[in-house]
Amino acid sequence: MIRLLNVEPTPVPGPPPVPIDEGDGGGSWFTFPDWTTILGPLPRILKEAGEKMDRVTTAVSDVMSGKFLKDAIDNLVIIWADESYSPLYSVFEKIYLFTPRIAEIGFVRGMWSVISLLCVIALIIGAAVLAVNVIRGKKDMKTLLKSFIVCIVSTMVSLTVLNMINVIINWITHMALEGIIGTTEIDYTSLSGEEVLKALIVGVDIMIDPSYASHTLGELLAAQGGIIALILHTIFVIFPAYIIKVLIILTLIAMSIFIGFWIAYSAYTGKLEVLVGYLNMYVRTLLAGGLTSLHWAIFVKAQTDYGAGKGIWFELGLKPAVAAPTSVCILMVVLFFLWIRPLWRAVKDPLTLNGGKAVESVGMWSERASKTLHAVGQRLGSTAMQQRGLNFSKMATRMKDAGKRMQESRTTLGQRALSKISGGTSEAIQGVRYEQPSNWAAEAGTIVSVDSMPVQFQGSQVMAAGSHEIAHALKPAGFQASTMVKVADKERADFKKLLVTDDFKNKFGQSVTYKESTGQLLIEGSQSKAVLREMQSAQFTVGNVKAGHAKDGLFVGNNGEVETLSSLEQTKEAMKVLKEKLPAYTKANLSKADASEAHKRILKDSARFPWANKLQMRNDGLWIPESLVEQVRPVLEGLQKTGKHQVRLELPKGSAFLEKMMQDFQANSEHTDLVASLEANVKLNHVLVEKEKVEHFKKAYEAYRRDRTPYWVNRSGKIMVVIDGVPVEYGKAPLKGLDMGSFEELQKEALRKHADKNQ
Length: 759
Hints:
single chain, alpha+beta, 5 domains, four-stranded antiparallel sheet, 13% strand, elongated, membrane, transmembrane helix, transmembrane
């Protein structure tokens, strides 16, 4: 269809006016008529008629093309959308970005007061009964009394604590909004609901530019992406956000009002999963609220950057406002797993708030994390990380199992109380049987490590071409030709008596140094022959005589061997002089084969070890300059590294006999090699055994257990032994016994298994 143009009508030129000659007489007998006077308003009427006809033509054209109908529908949809948004603005203003202070809501405070008062009264009654029992001597109830007192205080301050948490969460949220959006001059708590929603469309400009106030939310949405964007935003952004936020606030209100009930219920039933379930849901609810606020901040920032011509959305050419519905759908999926599904499970189990499942889930994820930590530790060769991974795995497995038991909705508290009152008769009637652990040494995992063999150094020797070089170097420094003799072991006591005689002192006292621990006698200077003759005349064996040079108790043999017979300062100074004159070496305590191989490897890699050529490989071993010991030691230890594979064996839960068993193993000479391969952790109740010795340990462990009687201790200190599935009071701990820990834990496990069996 061809659209008609709106063209102004062109006036038709009329005849030229005829001049009127008025003459002297005041006028002509004939005057040409004025056509404008004759036609009157007709030209104006014709012009207006043309304009109206043009408008009619345009309207008919719009109707025929559908534009008129489209504009009418768009305007109608915008009006309907704005009308549907109006009731929601108050919610977005008050609760969308920040959590209201629940404790300051009058209705919540009133309901909490009533319920908490009733719960406190119930807890006080229970505490009073427990206090009477404790006074009467039932000390095992003292712990339970303390729990009731803690619950009373917790109930009374619960609303205040929750309100403080709300304040902290709101402060964190405000800081997060400022950090993400990048503005500090905006007070996000004062934004209206309409501004909160408009910010998703326009960005931060909506908060600082007043010109946007004249446009409705529907108009802005339609301008950004058309009527389809408006509809999508309404269905997938605004309404879901409204519903989620209302549910979050209603959940927080309900949890605040009834917190006293859950505390009291946990105190009376002994179900820890109640408090776990409450904390789980409360934290999840706060996280859900925080995620909605972060989602808003991220998209406001994205829209602001897009308007400024920057950011990833601008590079992609995609308006954030158009992509918002998709992002909200993703957010809903995250919230479903994070909050909606756990909330539904908690609603179906209102007494415990599905706390058992929460504990099981934490245990399951912790178990996976611990296995990852253990694997990373093995890859990095970190024994400490592997140990932590196995410890974490042990705790995670117990947590997971505890969560499963919690979900069984059974507690043994009442049955144990009945058993205590009836002296165990109730258990006998039910046919409860007690069992010893089925697995006495459970393999929890392996520890793989690389150990460096420690390298020690022994002896001291100077390296010289011969005795002449030694004499040439040391005589100018005050060293004298000397002799060293070793006194026989059986003669040392008598020789000591000879040394203290006045005659010997007067003859040789200044030139003789004696080291009693080794029997070494150093004779300095020219007195060597005279001393040896004196010893022979006194019937002492003169053997193992070494010639060399000495000074102040320091002897250097002609073969380069160095011996220190004194710890005096003069001897230390003599050693310094020796090291200055001749290079001093010490020998690594390696076998000849290992020393030779290490020397070859170091020489081969001499580019890394510039001191490689200074090492001396001799017939008796590898000699290293004493000045290089600290550099050479780690290299030699690295060459001696060996792989070490240990298996971790967990002893029965709660048992306390590991320390005693290790002491008995150490006292038994048959287990000397086994003990050397064990690492016992008494605190965590496990043993690390070298893989090659696992079977040896299990056999020794089984033999140790076979000769001993397992026993348990109850809260009253009584010794209990299980005989034919029945716990029997034993009087005192057996001389050959195995301390298995708490009898109450054994009783709890027996009652649980009995309940599982009969279900």
